[in-house]
């Protein structure tokens, strides 16, 4: 059996059938393949004999709650992960390993105003009356 020559692509056939001077770019070809707008999901739902508003249609899309699945197995503790990483020691050793080095000291703040020069200080007190003291 002898093989035939390769045929033309759909794009090449389309280009040959376009009026002279028209845009025959690949983009124009792809744009020419626009179909009619389809029906909305809501319209298809109505066409199937359902009756209701779009809100009722949207509400109909929500299914019943499923049963809860079984719980998964507990994961490893941070301590166990620390051990699995090749560390050795007690849980306290692990906790102690979480403490970092001391940070550097902060800078000192500026000094406040001196109290020198205060001449007149007035202290006021009020008498306290005790009633029914036992």
From TrEMBL:
This is Uncharacterized protein. It comes from Zophobas morio.
